[in-house]
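pinging the channel bc i need a second pair of eyes. not urgent but kinda urgent?? the chain im working w is below, pasted from the shared doc
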Amino acid sequence: MPKRHEFQVVVEQDEAGYYVAECAVLKACYAQAKTYQEVMDNIRDVMALCLADLKGKKLPPQPGTIGVRRVQVVA
């Protein structure tokens, strides 16, 4: 029976308006789509593929999130 896993995913919107999702804990695990719902569906599929590739190996540790902030810088 497949085991449930929970990972942090960061979703951003690029300059063209596409949503980009990344699961940094799983190497090369990212997806993009035109809508938020679609990118979430896509990243779940990609995460499942990444986990299948890691089958039998130890999963990488997951760091906790402290926070996300927008920061202004004058340069």
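so The first strand starts at residue 10 and ends at 13. and The helical segments are 36-53. — does that match what u expected or am i reading it wrong
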